[in-house]
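Crash report, auto-generated. Payload:
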Amino acid sequence: MAAFVFAMYIPALPAQESPKEEDFFNIMKVSSPEGTLLEVGGLTLMPNGDLAISTRRGDIFIVENPSSRQPYFRKFASGLHEVLGLAYKGGSLYCAQRGELTKLTDSNMDGKADVFETIYAWPLSGHYHEYSFGPVLAPDGSFFVSGNVAFGDEEWWRGESRVPWRGWMMHIFEDGKMEPYATGFRSPCGLGMIDGELFYADNQGDWMGSGGVVHVKKGSFVGHPAGLRWAGLPGSPVKITAEQLFSFVSPRKIKDSLGRYIKPENIVKEKFVTLFEAKEKFPEIQVPAVWLPHGVLGISNSEILKIPENNFGPFAGLLLVGDQGQSKISRVFMEKVNGEFQGAAWDFRGGFQSGVLRMAWGKDGSLFIGETNRGWGSAGEANEGLQRLVWNNKIPFEMRTVKAMPDGFEIEFTKAVNKKSAEDIASYNVQSYTYKYHPVYGSPVVNTKTHIIKGVKVSDDGMRVRVIVEGLRRYYIHQLNLSGVTDKNNSFSLLHPAVYYTLNNIPEGKKLSMSEVSTKNSLIVAKASSGKKPAETALNNADQPSAKTATTSGKIPTAAEVKPLLLKYTCNACHNEEKKQVGPSFKEIAKRNYSADKILSLIYSPQKSNWPDYPTEMPPMPQVPKEDARKIANWIRSIR
Amino acid sequence: MTKRIQSASCLKTFTTVFSSCILLMTTWAQNTIHLRDFSFFGKSGNTWRISGDVNADLIKNNLLVTKPGSGILVNQPDENNHGEDLLTLLQHSDADVEFDYMMARASNSGVYLQGRYEIQLLDSWGITRPRYGDNGGIYERWDEARGKGKEGYEGYAPRQNVSMAPGLWQHLKISFQAPRFNEAGVKIENARFLRVVLNGIVIHENVELMGPTRGSLGVEVPTGPLRIQGDHGAVAFKNINITNYDKQRPELNGLRYFIYKGKFDAEPDVKKLAPEANGSSLILTSNLDSKITSKFLVRYTGNLTIKETGEYQFNMNLPGGVGLIKIDSKTVVPMGRGKSSGKMTLTVGDHALELLYFKMEDWENPTLALSLAGPGIREFLISDANTGMSDDSDPILVDGSSTSILRSFMDIPQSPRITHAVNVSSVQQLHYTYDLDKGNIVQVWKGGFLDATSMWHDRGDGSSKPIGATKFFGNPTFSLSIISSPGQPWITDSAGTGYLPKGYMLDAANRPVFRYFIYGAKVSDAIKAIDNGHGLQREITVDNAPINMYVLLARASAIEDMGSGTYLVDSKSYFLHLDSAPANALIRDINGTKELIVPIQNKLTYAIIF
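Recovered output after restart:
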């Protein structure tokens, strides 16, 4: 049906091709001396405009004139332990090494650090996954540092906190004092201090259905139970215990008849719980302010950064969130409803050479991007890199913000819309879904619902649209596709027509009256005039399994037929036909000579043990309808 | 990031496949020289003696001081008695030779395999660029016909200098392959040093010797004595072992293979299966049919010709596979996954061999490695050496030729992983690991600095390893403690001490000076290499030291007080030297372990000499 709906629209669209991301934002090289290995773990701008970089190899570089044709690289320090964060304060640099927060000072002004002061050292067990991130600076000059969990020995899939404060956010003060601040973190690589409030982004994994931007408050529990082990220690502001949580949602620590633990896998038909349901029971649970749907807006979200006034044109004041695995940046708008943050997220710019881990604003308003993918994999093929994102002062046609309304959403655009397209209900479709909260690696999207759009109101200046959506669901991700809305001047489509709004709260207030909105639906008109049954067709949406297609099960589909499916089910977030990315290439999979049935079963229940060389586990994809999965399987088999 | 480790590690390299077999090796025909008398040798001259203990003088050249007893072979030449070489009565061919030895200061000796190929033994203490004539070097060959000044050639320097100080026991292990001759007595293959390991570090590997080294007993021969040089200087030996491999290897012939496709959980009845392919093969190999790479079974049949009766060890390695071996229809290696082995006594003659290899896992390349060891037969690879050889990881080595610092996790024996370790190198090639959790040195080493492959290849596990020869100081403990009575145990954790690490500052030469607080006192801990490369000097400074504060200098099974502030630790493994020997330094016994403790008021300086 989706294809049919789309087909109906094509003739209405202009023949002229809509612009692309690179028509507005250029990715530029930052030249560095040959052999400089920039596996960037931390990036910060110094007050004089120099850029400080920390690397996973333990070096700290200071780059003078970083936006110039030939910046000067000075090695400020070396020999540190896998530095995944960097901040500047009061003439010194501060970095989280694996095991401590360190203050680096050049006391003799020879351009190199000579004092390496331990501000606070935390325990580690020595597990490879015990990375530490930060610091980010609070307005009072104190520091936040986050710590990854380790994994089990036998239960290698289960995040565990072997020593105090793994899986926690630590609040550290200049005098060496540390206050445990919040827990529930799994792989908290993305930190951001936004207008004085602490936010973080995690990766998909066990208990983490998808990444997202989470507001971290003192005493918050953000979902992964490992850190709860230490909730009873003095100073812990988190009161919930693992036992309490597990009485509500099972950790599924189950052994087989031989006494070996069984890895929890997704169960397709089961009664499950969501994180927000858990929150009703345990109010200290902090649900993401903005989910970044897995595979769509990243797979391993990283730095969260606010766009300052005067930077990036219409996007000033919004947030950017990097993604390591997909080598791209998403854009986020947040608003406060009923005292809690929530908001919308879009794709923003992809195509970076390696995994986007860190971002820092240059004095000239361009954005430095620190990248790495060693051992982690990413869409960008390079192992490391430092690049620069530059706006070319052209304004793309985009949604600028989406705000929740009592009866739907208000969308603000960067350019005036073509009213005819915007007043047409057929230009929109809306569906909502969420994720499971369970000990399984990742989660399929669940409870998917398609919403009826009852009406649209376009502002006089064409810069805003209010959409009345029936049956809004609190806490759910509402995906709005504005594939039919075009801009006023040249009828281009939106650069990114999909937005993902996390509706943690539905605001009170005045609803639109039906008298002031357009209820025109060109599709229904078109259908009706052609004598077909309209309503169902128009309202079904892209995510429903298409019941019947021309391709029968055995037939080998063409690449052109499969490509939209790979996109739709986010397969291509991790797999490329030819090249290794986060996962193996389709050609590599084809070499295994699996039967179509075997591929089908692996789509629904991936076997990590089949690909020991790939660090990131594939989540189960039960949302892919059998018919489509079979097409994909047959295609994979055909490209051997 | 979100990433995680797969519990099963995959062994892919040939090196891994084969060297892991070596670990399983049992030795045959091993001769331990008892060193109660000289019955193992021919004439011994008048400088060699059997002793019960030996020490070198660190000041005087060429001087070893002995005590009566047995177990140690000592050569003590002097101006009147220049000494003679010792030759074993045993004549060896291929052999592993292993021993402990101690050099006197500035002394020179050597061991000649078959009396002809010399590994140099020398006091090379402090040398940073070793040559062929240094300790562990393969001594040069000599030919006067090459012209004056050019006589010496084809000497091989050790890869790094991991020599210890005179007066310390060093360990050398040599795997030697004798030259081969045809029936007419013509040499058809050169001798080789397969592997030479000095103080735990490989310094030569597979070095072909075109001919005998300088001072050889004579022309090359199939067998010869082990010869210890005795006319150059004072040296001591103990624990000498010679394993002679003089018997003929078994041979595999008449090999036929049968490939069956499918997945096999147990040994199938092959009579009921139709092979996908079959044929004859000259060698046992997994490299049979490039189209069949996964989920298959290979069955080999063939004839194993045994030329020496005795017990044979079969070591098989099948990464990602399962297999078994039968000899004369009796199972010798039972069905096993990955690495498996078995033993069987075989008599001279032909034996029917059957080998099954099930390739199970998709992600491994087909790899079949089989090695055999037997009576007087060194373990050797009887299967194809060219399968499974690829390894995509390039080692990442950290240069220590200038002062450099690298933090990492560090693993030391019998201790939990050290998680806050700082590794420091020096131009003198003396390096150490400092544990920031304890404010103490946990190991020192010399030679190459660090191998960071395990930290920086792929996602890594955060750890690095010393490249050179290491002295471990046991389970990490704190340097400083308050000891109110001589029997009070040393602190085991920081409880009650207020221990607080403060990191380090770099001095003018870029060396770290570590800082911490303990018992409220501010401590700085400065460690530097002694200029001549003879050891590390450590200076601990405590501001406002509380009363009864002590420094723990060593904890070991044995600590010998050599006088003048010098101590020999851990069965002559390293020296400690206190510059100004405090009269109240104390060697105490805590539950059978010796501890050397010294009170500290403000400052203590000592050297670790090795």
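Post-recovery validation: Chain B touches chain A through 43 residues (CB under 8 Å).
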